[in-house]
Design a protein that fits this description.
The complex is a heterotrimer of chains A (394), B (248) and C (139). In chain B, 30% of the residues lie in helices and 18% in strands. Chain B contains 8 helices and 10 strands. In chain B, a hairpin with a 2-residue loop joins strand 4 and strand 5. Chain B is globular, with a radius of gyration of 21 Å. Chain C is mainly α. The relative contact order of chain C is 0.09. Classes of the chains: A alpha+beta (394), B alpha+beta (248), C mainly alpha (139). Chains A and B meet through strand 4, helix 4 and strand 18 of A and helix 2 and strand 10 of B.
Amino acid sequence: MTTTLPRQPFHVAIVGGGGTGGALAHDLVLRGFRVTLVERGELTSGTTGRHHGLLHSGARYAVKDRESAVECIEEREILRRVCPGTFEENDGLFVAITDEDVAYEPLFFESCLASGIPARRVSREEALRLEPHLNPDLKMAVQVPDATMDAMRMPLRFFASAKAGGAIIRPWTLVTELLIHDRLVSGIRVRDLTNGVEEEIRADLVVNATGPWAEQLAVMAGCDVPIRPSPGVLLAVRGRWCNMVVNRLHPSGDGDIVVPQRGLSVVGTSSWVVEDPDDLGVPEDHVERMYAEGAKMIPAIRTAERRAAWSAARPLIGSRDAESGRELSRTFKCFDHRETDGVEGFVTISGGKGTTLRAMAETTADVICRKVAVEAPCQTREVVTLPHTAYYAS
Amino acid sequence: MTETVTDARTTRVVVSRRKEGDDHGALRYDTFDVAVGPRTTILDALVAIRRELDPTLTFRHSCFHASCGTCGMRVDGREGLACVTPVPAGDEVTVEPLGNLPVVSDLVVDMDAFYDDFDDAGRPLVRASETIPGAARAEGVDELERYEDCIECGICLSACPVAGSDPRYVGPAALAAAWRVVEEPRGLDPGPVVRLMDDEQAAWRCHLAWECSEACPSGVDPAAAIMRLRRSAVGARAHRLFSFGGNR
Amino acid sequence: MASTTVGRGRPATGPARRRGMLGWFDPRGRRLGGLAFILNRLTGLGLVVYLYLHLMILSLLVQGPNAWDDFVDIALSPPFLALDVFLLTGMLIHGLNGIRVGLVGLGLVASRQKALFIAAMVIAAFVALVGALRIFGGE
């Protein structure tokens, strides 16, 4: 049961209709804020909807990025509770194909346990019983609590809950300017793309939740955020070749995960860095790499029919000098621009991944509460979100 | 209005446009010259148009891989998901929004009407997965699960000639969802759903055009589901007719 | 501080694009099932028209043997016999497809509908051909 606090007079305008924006709208509404969210296209049409749908156990980060790994396993449990019946909870396997993989396994296994990620060693025979389409040359595997999510429908639950709680959600609404005067942001100027009408939306605080577009928006307020769009290629082939998520047991690399999505199998991913998140391209050699690497884990992928190949841009926080993007942390950060740029009324939340949407929202909402001196605890760890179809309820 | 992106193999993309307030929301067609490659999809072309030529073009999309169901459109008169529909060979292609749902703007349709009927079936999102014969379950995994095939794209509703002539018909997606509740109840009681769909504007409104099953990008086969739902409905009626003691 | 936001965020919608009842007969973009659907409507309408014509012609009987005999002369002419073949074909298509619609439509053979349609049309073609030969062969 939710406790709705008395309505504050504070109005927060969220720019960006991805998972982070949706989860933030939900969190703020529960804390008694008035919320308007604007998104230039369809909800989750930026980066959120494009990922393979992995609900992270965190095992992929256990060795190199402990902070991310712990975030993931905690969030996984919370999301299962607040989004019931929303995931394919079949667990995942990290499969060792080569001797190097086998040599890496003890470090991987211990790192999982140290991060609080339950892990279980699985013999080659048992792995093939669990997933008959695995490469029969595999040596052994480790079972972890990975799961599959629908990359659009899971975040849509947050939008549904936010909308039911009174948030105004406006897709097809483009921000043309930030209203700023004397280093104080007082709202946004938008154009409704369905009718061309321009208007000003005044707010006590504007949140930049635009993911890889974060810098493009921040610049409108004379602010800087160290976000590099880092795309990767994904490949969907026909055939559901596994029920569990299948990962390669090695340090992060291209094409080392296969996620089932209904009747398809999605192989990902690669990594490079771009300037413009609207123009990613789909390098065909990367697609070829997905086929090759995916086939090392599930040979049938090599000859499976291509359903789609596309790119998605991760919003990576960190140094501007990064080359490939993989060395940047996958954790998230909330920037209060009063502290970073001397601009009041403006906050950016960026980084992260699909699994951490709720945590990113909680952190941002905490920052907002501090800025406006409101005491309102987070309720999103307990409040069960509405089914995604409720977003469309008239 | 014709505008050019670059000179590669170019195709004329004729797009249906509508903006509320523009000429009383009347429909018109804009033509864009777009550079296309061998793997360019309709969605790729629309994204390029929006980026380079006309930022006011609105269209639904999200996943780019036939999983979210948002990019359903009519391409040269035939329904499909834009993200997996290649730009056809030839000089020109026409892109229009789905039929039988209110048009919001350009290629965006209002899905509220779709979900009003779809939700009546009350079908859960996740089902049992028997897709890999012989596979065992991992320790700690009670049941192998998967998402329902239906990606709620509205393509079946758009392709249906009956829905094209009667807005009261609940449509193939809602009926297919209802059948899934019968086929795999998962703790729900299928009885009320069958009774709800045993209606002249539901299961009995279909005239077997089979366009929904042919157009479905996700293998749902709604037409067969409707026929099986009819058999359940007839069985339920017979049961009520012949059961003594009068339980309804 | 108050803010100006327009409405509840629901954009106004225009009408749905519906092809209407005429759309039932539009073959563009249709596949086999849709074509079978069109064919069944057309043959059905054709049979209804035939029924009225048939009753009108039978009413000639009221006018006595001469009126009927005049009609029989026309009825034996090749163009009219061709119409008979046309009618026979229409009846076969509609009837055999109708059996498919009945079986499939009650959920008895839900998944083999395409095969049933092709089988029905093959039988219809065959019987129509035999019928045409007999009609023109002067039986």
